[in-house]
Amino acid sequence: MGKQVVLLPGDGVGKEIMQSAKVILEAISNEYGYSFTFHEHSIGGDAIDKYGVPLPQQTVEACKEADAILLGAVGGPKWDNISAHNRPEKGLLGIRKEMGLFANLRPIKGINALLSASPLKEEFIKNSDILIIRELTGGLYFGEPSERRDNGNSVVDTLFYRRDEMERIIDKAFQQAMKRSKHLTSVDKANVLESSRLWREVVEEKRQEYPEVEVEHLLVDAAAMKLITQPNAFDVIVTENLFGDILSDEASVLTGSLGMLPSASMREDHVGLYEPVHGSAPDITGKGIANPLGMILSTAMMLRHSFQMDEAATEIERAVNYVLDLGYHTPDLAKIGQKAITTKEMTDLIVDHITLKSISD
Ligand code: NAD
Ligand code: IPM
Ligand code: MN
């Protein structure tokens, strides 16, 4: 039996880039003889429109049966003024929590062809290769009480973590550091937050199990600065939910566009949810020009992490680099030259390269 993949296109450009993911997987299945069965379900604003809730029960059930999940993006101005518990974003937070996907891996790699697309100086971003590991099912996003307003005059958001939630994500980060350059930066706000002080304590305990890994603690404000002034000083970064959200969008500047970044949301087994880091991009929705590469690279992460199809994953990454090296790019990377192309054209070029490569083998 082939791999059962749930597709959650969601809203805005999410729908447009999911089309690219499907086409790429079809090409991979033709070239390598793999079989993928797609099950498309609703989430976010799309689900609010169809079923009145951002995360319908049938979507949760389908995800629980799946070998892996691909998600486009959720949200948009259409749903911006509905109540907090029924917003599209609740659908995304809900599926992460329901599936127990506590570890969000966000790789950021300076791509040679895109060095000039970044507003940062090439000499600083060249060779940058960072893995942000973001805790995904705890912290301010999920802390109780969630009764957030009192007559509109006071509000509360609760930053809650249990020690074991910290232990499992920090352990994951050490494991990843062991597979890479063995350098781990833990980012917190231990000069202010009690949760950060426990976080630091847990990092200090865990490092005893990984004596080869060099550990550094950074406060989040200084980390935000260092990330764009000395990106080469980082290998693996581990941090809590909200800090990881913010730092990863910041780090996307190293690649030239937020549209470039993929992510994998994992738990202890091989099931995972894969999605680009960016959102539904309402300002370019419907124009057919969204950068599909964050989504396509997320698909490669799915092949590698959930299905152990390493060769196919590497082939997608190689094809992406090849097409960028030729100078093709979507308009979000406009600074690199004249050949701005559409989402579909970019996707088709990558498919052509995947297909050609296997013919020449
Ligand atoms: P956004 O990430 O959607 O867009 C920020 C900027 O980056 C925009 O100028 C957009 O055009 C650009 N951009 C993003 N992805 C791009 C791509 N693939 N190609 C080219 N340009 C791209 O963030 P936002 O505007 O703050 O949020 C819009 C909506 O998306 C909100 O409702 C937000 O809650 C939601 N959101 C969802 C996710 C998700 O589903 N994972 C992530 C972030 C934001
Ligand atoms: C992300 C997004 C989400 C988050 C939102 C849409 C809930 O910004 O995946 O980075 O904050 O986790
Ligand atoms: Mn985000």
Automatic annotation (TrEMBL):
<feature type="binding site">
    <location>
        <begin position="76"/>
        <end position="89"/>
    </location>
    <ligand>
        <name>NAD(+)</name>
    </ligand>
</feature>
<feature type="binding site">
    <location>
        <position position="221"/>
    </location>
    <ligand>
        <name>substrate</name>
    </ligand>
</feature>
<protein>
    <recommendedName>
        <fullName>3-isopropylmalate dehydrogenase</fullName>
        <ecNumber>1.1.1.85</ecNumber>
    </recommendedName>
</protein>
<feature type="site" description="Important for catalysis">
    <location>
        <position position="141"/>
    </location>
</feature>
<feature type="binding site">
    <location>
        <begin position="279"/>
        <end position="291"/>
    </location>
    <ligand>
        <name>NAD(+)</name>
    </ligand>
</feature>
<dbReference type="GO" id="GO:0051287">
    <property type="term" value="F:NAD binding"/>
</dbReference>
<keyword id="KW-0464">Manganese</keyword>
<keyword id="KW-0520">NAD</keyword>
<dbReference type="GO" id="GO:0000287">
    <property type="term" value="F:magnesium ion binding"/>
</dbReference>
<dbReference type="InterPro" id="IPR019818">
    <property type="entry name" value="IsoCit/isopropylmalate_DH_CS"/>
</dbReference>
<dbReference type="GO" id="GO:0003862">
    <property type="term" value="F:3-isopropylmalate dehydrogenase activity"/>
</dbReference>
<feature type="binding site">
    <location>
        <position position="106"/>
    </location>
    <ligand>
        <name>substrate</name>
    </ligand>
</feature>
<feature type="site" description="Important for catalysis">
    <location>
        <position position="189"/>
    </location>
</feature>
<comment type="pathway">
    <text>Amino-acid biosynthesis; L-leucine biosynthesis; L-leucine from 3-methyl-2-oxobutanoate: step 3/4.</text>
</comment>
<keyword id="KW-0100">Branched-chain amino acid biosynthesis</keyword>
<feature type="binding site">
    <location>
        <position position="134"/>
    </location>
    <ligand>
        <name>substrate</name>
    </ligand>
</feature>
<feature type="binding site">
    <location>
        <position position="249"/>
    </location>
    <ligand>
        <name>Mg(2+)</name>
    </ligand>
</feature>
<feature type="binding site">
    <location>
        <position position="245"/>
    </location>
    <ligand>
        <name>Mg(2+)</name>
    </ligand>
</feature>
<dbReference type="GO" id="GO:0009098">
    <property type="term" value="P:L-leucine biosynthetic process"/>
</dbReference>
<keyword id="KW-0460">Magnesium</keyword>
<keyword id="KW-0963">Cytoplasm</keyword>
<feature type="binding site">
    <location>
        <position position="221"/>
    </location>
    <ligand>
        <name>Mg(2+)</name>
    </ligand>
</feature>
<keyword id="KW-0560">Oxidoreductase</keyword>
<keyword id="KW-0479">Metal-binding</keyword>
<dbReference type="Pfam" id="PF00180">
    <property type="entry name" value="Iso_dh"/>
</dbReference>
<keyword id="KW-0028">Amino-acid biosynthesis</keyword>
<dbReference type="InterPro" id="IPR004429">
    <property type="entry name" value="Isopropylmalate_DH"/>
</dbReference>
<dbReference type="GO" id="GO:0005829">
    <property type="term" value="C:cytosol"/>
</dbReference>
<comment type="similarity">
    <text>Belongs to the isocitrate and isopropylmalate dehydrogenases family. LeuB type 1 subfamily.</text>
</comment>
<keyword id="KW-0432">Leucine biosynthesis</keyword>
<comment type="function">
    <text>Catalyzes the oxidation of 3-carboxy-2-hydroxy-4-methylpentanoate (3-isopropylmalate) to 3-carboxy-4-methyl-2-oxopentanoate. The product decarboxylates to 4-methyl-2 oxopentanoate.</text>
</comment>
<feature type="domain" description="Isopropylmalate dehydrogenase-like">
    <location>
        <begin position="4"/>
        <end position="350"/>
    </location>
</feature>
<dbReference type="InterPro" id="IPR024084">
    <property type="entry name" value="IsoPropMal-DH-like_dom"/>
</dbReference>
<feature type="binding site">
    <location>
        <position position="96"/>
    </location>
    <ligand>
        <name>substrate</name>
    </ligand>
</feature>
<comment type="subunit">
    <text>Homodimer.</text>
</comment>
